[in-house]
Write a structure and sequence with these properties.
There is one protein chain. This protein has 422 residues and is of the alpha/beta class. The protein contains 17 helices and eleven strands. The chain has helices spanning 3-6, 11-86, 93-111, 115-121, 130-145, 154-168, 170-182, 186-192, 194-199, 217-227, 231-235, 237-249, 272-281, 293-303, 337-350, 369-378, 390-396, and strands at 201-204, 209-212, 262-266, 285-289, 306-307, 323-328, 351-360, 362-363, 387-388, 402-409, 415-420. Helix 2 crosses helix 6 (154-168), helix 6 (154-168) crosses helix 7 and helix 15 (337-350) runs parallel beside helix 17 (390-396).
Amino acid sequence: MSLFNMAGLGTAAQAEKIEELKGEIERLQNHILNAEQEYSRRISEMRDLMARTNETHAERVKDLRNKLGTATESHKATVERLRSKLEASSESQQKLRETIDAMRKRQDRMRSPHADEAAALTSGTAAAGRGDQLRRLTERFLEFLDNPYLTLPSKAATIAFQKSLKAQGEGQLEAYLAEQEAERFADFFLMLFWSEMGIATHFDAAKLGFVNTFERGGADVKRAEEAGVSLLENRGDIHKINQERFDRLIVPDMISADEVHRICEIGPAWGGAASYFKNRFSPEAYEIYEIDGAYAQYLEKHMDMLPRPVDGETLSGTEDASIDIAVASSVFYFMPPIKQWSYLSEIGRVLRPGGIAVFNIIIADHMPAKTLEGYLTNYFPRRNFGVIPKKWVELAFPAEQFETLVENDTAQAEYTVIRKRA
């Protein structure tokens, strides 16, 4: 007996059931076919849209490239020549000696109207009048120019000289740059670092004389060598205080030694902070931006540091997102606010995600009237101070990209620690 007969179905019922199944299969096949056709239609529309979009994008890119090429080609050769002139020069010692002699002659011309008066008014250890102060400052400035890593801020200088090119013409500009290059761009560096020289100068009322800590690296290195000790040893307890402070400030969960491969420091001077960070984290490379040539060369020779071309406001020798820790220890105090902001912004650029910045600054917003009054009376006659508005710090480290781990801790010499968000 057949299965259908066992189920009580006759031949007619069996045929009817088969027809129903055939109908259902046909409807499913039609539905699948319609779906495939609709899918093919939509795919075709999307491909057409993408083709049109790519074509439009290609046309816009081509148009922009053409416009950019037209705008820059006419000045390209001139700008390249200007940039090459702004590179750190490899002048011979004889040429540098001639430059220094020329500047000293200029200094003598400046001093000559007051020479007799200065000789009459000063004598012995009290000889700290106008002539001596000018002489000491000039000598420090000449030592400053001797830094082989010193360079002008390339972007700003190039823009300025492009304006000169437009106003004066190529011949006049070339002659002017040749004259400036012969004197190591001394006039420009004098203006660029005038604030730092002023901030680093104070009047010692007890000794009736002026003290200037700008460009003191040569004297520090000489004293250490005469004593037969390192620069760190020559600093005694200050080095120990730095170590204890950084141990408290930078806790292990901020960043581990395994994560640290490159460190960059602004103004390492005698190497107090540099020694700490190098010993604790053992980086593969430690870049430094130091305007004092004697310090820079000492750290390169004795601590395996890597001096970069230094212009006092950028980290032009360091690539984007290449640094694990950026350090600026007790250096921003001696800079005008605009340079502090520039350096802080540069730190944000060179830090890699997860990297930290360690620096201390004086926030202008936190200063009460009593502190301001103290600046006027306690630092006489100095009137230039390295403070910065809090808003400028926030502009350098926007909250969506950076997190503040420690903010201007007055108990820790006003240090701040900021981490770049991953």
